């Protein structure tokens, strides 16, 4: 499955007149306000988000999984799907693999395929939350934090193996997310579990190539429901600091207790040069992994506002690894990812419209009302014509979703792969 350039051009034809009208109106208005529309368009075009291999099939819950037709069942097919997303949106320029779900059988072939599609291998994810076939030790009571040295050693070796696999593909980061924790008070000694985790991470860190990063993801609960070893950004930051300069905190939007001020967390981590990666999704209750921007788009914008500020003012913080971490049951996964990518670009574009000089002046005057007006003025702008234009300039679709449907991509995938496919992964 590959979308040809002229198929996209064909679909753009019916949208171009409308687009031009909306874009001219908006860019005229923004230029008058003193914005540099061209540089905003370049920034939008440069902003690339990695797609995780496990988001391309239907997700599931512990109550069941309803598969979606024409899902990818091999790594090649997953990359093919990301290729489709990338040609339409021009924003999905990366893939994030999960080992062992995505071990390549032929490294050169997979690299060449990704290269042709202009997709780079982003952070690789290790998996010590499931027991693997023929594994000697079990992760039932934890992996890097386990009281058994043999279990910890197995988990460390797995992470080192993941680094090796990623290295062969050109990845530059390892993401560590642990399910480690406890379900009942008294089950674990918090201090021992934390110390074991730190020591294990240091052992993994020693195997990190010089130009790699280690991203430590936190999460307050699930699958353990009393305590999680790396429960919050504080725990993650302590562990990263305990490892060294190449270790960073990774923020996943769904991994916070209700009403946490996530924008403040990302802001301070950037100030300290310790924000390494970011997982996008949305949620109403917990780690719901819903489509980005589907529940709390204003919160997403406020987070982007801090990210934009940090990217402009915190050279001490490295470039971030951006990834969509969403997965669910009810939508065509590719349509869902198109919606997520759109929501990300939309929040980013709005954040780029915040006039930082004016905001600073209003802050210094303690003009609280003006501060809010500036922030909300940017948020209320309909920036979609900017997104359309950025895509158009890079050869993408004015409307990725309409084009996806007009070209009947899902229908073609079903023809190629069959109806009752099951994706590998969760
Ligand atoms: C789990 O809740 C985390 O969000 C992980 O980043 C990720 O979803 C997991 O590693 C996928 O299997
Ligand atoms: Zn995540
Ligand atoms: Zn999660």
UniProtKB/TrEMBL annotation:
Listed A to Z, the keywords are: Isomerase, Manganese, Metal-binding
Q: Which residues form a coiled coil?
A: none
The record's section on SUPFAM superfamilies has: Xylose isomerase-like
Q: Which InterPro entries match?
A: L-rhamnose_isomerase (IPR050337), Xyl_isomerase-like_sf (IPR036237)
**Entry GO MF terms:** isomerase activity
Protein known as: Sugar isomerase
Tell me what organism the protein belongs to.
Answer: Geojedonia litorea
Q: What is the lineage of its organism?
A: Bacteria, Pseudomonadati, Bacteroidota, Flavobacteriia, Flavobacteriales
